[in-house]
Write a structure and sequence with these properties.
Largest sheet: none
Strand content: under 5%
Helix content: over 70%
Number of domains: 1
Shape: globular
Order of helices and strands: HHHHHHHHHHHHHHHHHH
Mean pLDDT: 92
Number of strands: 0
CATH topology: Hydantoin permease
Bound molecules: 4-fluoro-L-phenylalanine
Distance between the termini: 43 Å
Radius of gyration: 21 Å
CATH architecture: Orthogonal Bundle
């Protein structure tokens, strides 16, 4: 089976693909927004600790499951099971992840479509097409469906081509573009008046808030969403890694890239907000908190770009292209989860499975678009606040309690023969067994 499956052709290919999945709207929009609403640098600090101490071990659990099983999440976990009840449990966890990925894509595609429409606006403006540029930034069913369709088309286009020619090739193209654009935008924005106030707000921690329960929950949720956990995605990406690679190191590198890009996005967004304030734009809500959520991305930042005159058209265009690229490298991973499941478990041909599943998810997006007021938040909440943490926790339970410890060691030793004497092996197995499930559960119960 392994030879007919795809595999990342290089270490860099995997790193960029997994980082591409991890780095998305969650980093560039979610992280700065959460930082702004949760006490600035206090949130950054807690996020960093949770990302490395809880999300990274859980991320490793998912990667190891996939590389051991060399298959989709359900098949991989069933290979680890010895009893019938374990195989049933494997099905529930694996399939739950696949459904979760599909649900996330159904609302993520709509928001990504908005990013694309806001990138079209300055371009249309530049070409003198005023009515087009007004239309693309006005809420409406036709606009929402059109841009969600274009975004889904791009996602399907890449996934139809498979692991090497699709996911890997496009991640290698898009990720450097994303990092380059992000750096250029930061360099530009921090030269503007007002940016230093933003940097101060971003980097000075309000230590009194570090132990606030809401802050802890938001930081953990953000870390899990950002590493795409609990969706079967990292299991399937893990299954495409060669047995020659050192998983422990690869996982750490991807986590580091994800956290770094989220941090860099904060260096762009928060100073940009304060620059906007300097130009007379309202950036604080009535309760005194920094404006976050959709109005930050679709109202405050566009007014900032508008206030910059002609150059604002280019900056605005670059910013929304950056958002669209980040969304695309994540959405391809969300589609790969269900597609690999359909191909491997139901013998569907890859191209057909991709188009079919892509269209089904798009149909769900259309249903959400017609009920935007309540369904967008509802689907996002079900998938990201309940689905992801529960499934990620169950993956840890699987690795910690069901998998044979010896098989675990044999798997991790591949590509990393010295692992047995490393700190990782001393800590990670019991950490995944006790600490991760307990911590996730605690945070989860607390959030209820
Ligand atoms: N990690 C992505 C982000 O931060 O935007 C979101 C995501 C990707 C969630 C893939 C789930 C997933 F399966």
């Amino acid at each position: 089976m392994a030879s007919s499956r795809g595999e990342f052709s290089s270490r860099l290919g995997f790193i960029l693909a997994a980082a591409g999945s991890a780095v998305g709207l969650g980093n560039i929009w979610g992280f700065p927004t959460q930082t702004a609403t949760n006490g600035g640098a206090a949130f950054v600090l807690v996020y960093l600790i949770l990302a490395f101490c809880l999300a990274y071990p859980a991320f490793m659990a998912e990667l190891v499951i996939g590389r051991y099983g060399q298959a989709n999440a359900v098949t991989s976990m069933q290979k680890m099971s010895r009893h019938m009840w374990q195989k049933r449990f494997a099905f529930i966890v694996g399939f739950g992840g696949v459904i979760c990925a599909g649900l996330i894509l159904s609302f993520y595609g709509i928001i990504a479509g908005w990013m694309m429409s806001y990138a079209v606006e300055p371009a249309a403006n530049l070409l003198g097409m005023q009515s087009v540029s007004d239309w693309v930034i006005t809420q409406g069913h036709v606009r929402n469906i059109l841009f969600a369709a274009v975004f889904m088309f791009l996602t399907i286009f890449i996934i139809r081509k498979g692991v090497e020619q699709g996911i890997e090739k496009w991640s290698k193209r898009l990720m450097p573009a994303l990092i380059g654009l992000l750096i250029l935008l930061i360099l530009y924005v921090i030269t503007l008046d007002g940016a230093t106030d933003g940097l101060r707000a971003y980097l000075q921690p309000d230590m009194s808030r570090v132990f606030e329960p809401d802050l802890l929950i938001s930081a953990l949720g953000q870390a899990f969403f950002s590493l795409s956990l609990g969706t079967s995605v990292m299991v399937i990406y893990g299954s495409y890694i060669s047995k020659k690679e050192n998983l422990v190191k690869l996982g750490a590198q991807v986590t580091l890239i994800d956290v770094t890009i989220a941090f860099m996005a904060g260096l762009l967004i928060i100073p940009a907000m304060y620059v906007a304030q300097h130009q007379g734009v309202q950036i604080f809500a009535a309760d005194g908190s920094l404006i976050s959520g959709p109005s930050m991305v679709f109202a405050v930042l566009p007014s900032l770009f508008e206030g910059m005159g002609a150059i604002g058209l280019f900056v605005g265009f670059a910013f929304f292209v950056l958002m669209s690229i980040a969304a695309l490298t994540s959405s391809i991973s969300m589609l790969e989860g269900p597609v690999s499941y359909a191909v491997e478990r139901h013998n569907l041909e890859r191209k057909k499975a991709t188009t079919l599943i892509g269209l089904i998810i798009f149909a769900m997006s259309v249903v959400i678009i017609f009920n935007l007021d309540f369904m967008l938040d509802l689907v996002a909440m079900i998938a990201t606040e309940y689905g992801q943490p529960i499934i990620a926790m169950l993956c840890c339970v699987f690795v910690g309690w069901i998998w044979n410890r010896n098989d675990m060691l044999v798997e991790i030793k591949q590509g990393n023969p010295e692992v047995e004497s490393s700190l990782f092996w001393k800590v990670w197995p019991w950490y995944t067994k006790f600490v991760c499930p307990a911590a996730i559960l605690m945070v989860f119960i607390h959030s209820l």
